[in-house]
Specification:
The termini are far apart. This protein has eight helices and five strands. It has a five-stranded mixed β-sheet, with helices on both faces. The chain folds into two domains: 39-115, Ubiquitin-like (UB roll) (Roll), CATH 3.10.20.30; 117-203, Orthogonal Bundle (DNA polymerase, domain 1). The chain is an alpha+beta fold. Helix 5 (124-131) packs across helix 8 (192-203).
Length: 207
């Protein structure tokens, strides 16, 4: 009977023999570069200005805005659609720009925080956020404000949420409604109550 010690010696010798048979060129093969994606021409109207772009079809709308159009107000947070920092308004609907490919918006209209207001001429929601201290670090604020603009429009159009008491009636723009509708926008500083106060001041108690 072969001993455990002899078995280990045989297996080590076998492994060494096999490795010596592998050609040096095969062992030294460099890693293959990532395949280049297909390029596509597209047009986007961003904040009222037309842009023509040629992008890799895998480019997200977020990266197109930040890296190609240099509109860095839209923030990259989690990059997984979970924090809302990248919220923009695309063709009238708020979306997470990190989860949407730029080519999906060819010919579309996109509004970012830069298109809502400027330091010289602020949007009413921007003014209210400052007044009510609706931000601390400010990283989530562009997404919060873009989302809030869309939320006010949703309520005006009578679109209900999960907490709407009557889906056939125009919902109240209450704190409960706002917390539900803005639940996808995370504020790690915890300024939620101030954010709600700012939105209610701008929109009124009923939209």
């Amino acid at each position: 009977m072969i001993s455990r010690r002899d078995a280990l010696i045989v297996s080590a010798a076998t492994a060494a023999a096999v490795s010596s048979c592998v050609p040096a060129t095969a062992a030294a093969q460099p890693a293959l570069p990532a395949a280049a994606g297909a390029q596509m021409k597209l047009s986007l109207t961003v904040n009222g200005q037309a842009h023509s772009l040629q992008l890799d079809t895998r480019t997200t709308l977020l990266d197109a805005l930040r890296e190609h159009l240099h509109l860095t107000g839209t923030k990259k947070g989690c990059d997984h659609g979970q924090c809302g920092a990248c919220t923009v308004i695309a063709d009238g609907r708020r979306i997470n720009a990190c989860l949407s490919l730029a080519v999906m918006h060819d010919g579309g209209q996109v509004t970012t925080i830069e298109g809502l207001g400027t330091p010289q001429r602020m949007h009413p929601l921007q003014v209210a956020f400052v007044k009510h201290d609706g931000y601390q670090c400010g990283y989530c604020t562009p997404g919060q404000i873009c989302s809030a603009v869309a939320v006010i429009d949703e309520v005006k159009r009578g679109i209900p949420s999960h907490v709407s008491a009557d889906i056939n009636a125009r919902p109240l723009l209450s704190a409960e409604e706002l917390r539900e509708r803005l639940s996808g926008n995370i504020c790690r500083c915890g300024a939620y109550s101030n954010i709600v106060d700012a939105i209610i001041e701008v929109a009124g108690s009923r939209a």
